[in-house]
Amino acid sequence: MAVGGFAGCRGRCAVFAAIGLLAVTFLPGCGKKAPPAIKGTKLAVFPVKGRLMIDGKPMASAAIIFNPVTQLPPTVSQMQPRATADENGEFTVTTYKQDDGAPAGDYKITISWKGEDAVGMTDSGRAEIEEKAPRDFWNVRTTKIRVRVKEEPNALPTWDLAQLEGDATTSNP
Question: What is the pLDDT of residue 78?
Fold first, then answer.
């Protein structure tokens, strides 16, 4: 009887040992899953200033959009740096908060300008006014301005759209 009891214990012990081995193998991994991706993480931004002209005259109230050349990671806030030219054509780029700058990287610049008639108008009023920026600068595929924002303060050269029209241009290389 002692032999039979010992044999039965050996079988049960083998089962418990197998369960224990599986637990030791798989359970530690359960608590170590990769953390879920956090959406909306902000990238570091760097100051960016410039000036926008046409035929030597400031493009007051022109909308300047910095379109990232490379796709942002899905865990990063999908932002689009932008600026509005003042009465002297000068602008400071905004991404997350007013005048904070833009993340480092390469951008294609698109520009919308309705001229002096649109200064101070609401977006709905501006929509009724004809676009006055040269067509080459309206679309990300056709724009002639490319910018590399560096991890430092960035002072862009003055862009005169009349001079840039038709020329491929890279600013702040």
Answer: 80
